[in-house]
Amino acid sequence: MAGPQLSFRASTHEYIEKFYTSAATTMSTSQADISPNQNSVNSYGFLRRIKLRLRNSSAADSGNFNADYPQKILSTIRVTDPNGAEIYGGPTWSGYEAFLAEKYGTYKAVNDPNLSQLSSTSATTPLYLWVIPFELSESSGYGSLPNFDAQSPYKLQVVLDTLAHTYLTAPTTNPAVLLDGIIECWTLPDAVNKLTGLSQSQFPPGIGPMPGMNAVGCTVQHWSKSNPSITAASAVAAALIRKGNTYRNLVAVVRSSAGARIALSNFPNPITFSLDGAPLWNGIDPAVILEKWFRRDVGQAGSTNVTADTGVLPIIFGAPDAINIAGVDGTLGSQGWLGNNQASRIELSGTWGATAATLDVLTNDVNGVSLEGSAYAFAFGNQLASASQPSVRSGQ
User: Fold this and answer.
1) pTM for this entry
2) 287-316, pLDDT tens digit by residue?
3) Domains of the chain, earliest start first
């Protein structure tokens, strides 16, 4: 009689590798591509996340940053899968959007990269560490991506912004920077544990048959940016553009006509958030929604006062237990996610502020495969079983 099978997390090991360091690049009047060679991400096991670490090659002698910097010192961050489908970011996704995605993405007990000892907002010697997430649940490996084929790698594009965009007051000696690319992965377990003889699960949950297809797919989370239309000083329902997958989190950012983030008061107050006409928030002060995020996942000690990011409103469906312990109750932390399809009407409505000109919506959605029959199947499994958008693996 066969013994029990060890779970994937009981069978695998963590693997970390720095797979490239850019050439020392002096900031100038032009943007500079500091991506890895051929944009390729090293292939190894199951890809959990990519870390981008900004370091100094030489310091600036003076200067003051513009708003949204040093995070936005990377003007573009984009990850595509081996078939060229976009997984993370895009042409208008900067390091600032990456910062917001991490801070409000509810992935760790500490999510705010500004609190890292590897981050510094010094205008003369900027340091920063961005995390590009793929894994949805560290306790199970859910969402980690198969990354075995060196001939068909994931692709990473990173572009360094211009000196003029970065500095409000420019230095006289321009800084030069280095960028490290680091992958964090799970190893591929042996089929049988060499010490105990027990069989082992070789794949994390979320990898399996695609519904209605003769293919194996994997659960993929995405971060993307869109701009629903709003009108200053007007009662407008801002209709979300990115739909069809299951929402894990959203981050809304209100900006002026000059592109500057402006006060939270420029969101409608009261504001209503609705799904197909049914309100999920009904006439709420946005400040109450922001405080709700603070109580769920402040990303730092609860006794520490948190200064809000100007103009930023997180809309959180993930991490119902307040920290990334997804999987302890068998649900993979997915119970609170918001299912929708391409026909769904999802809106933020009310009267927008007098200087509200642009709304950025960062969408964290999940394209999931069926968990039917697996040890991780749960009551809301059908919500994730059949993505409305094409599979990033098959294109179907």
Assistant:
1) 0.90
2) 999 988 887 765 555 555 667 899 999 999
3) 8-186 (2.70.9), 219-301+308-385 (2.60.120.730)
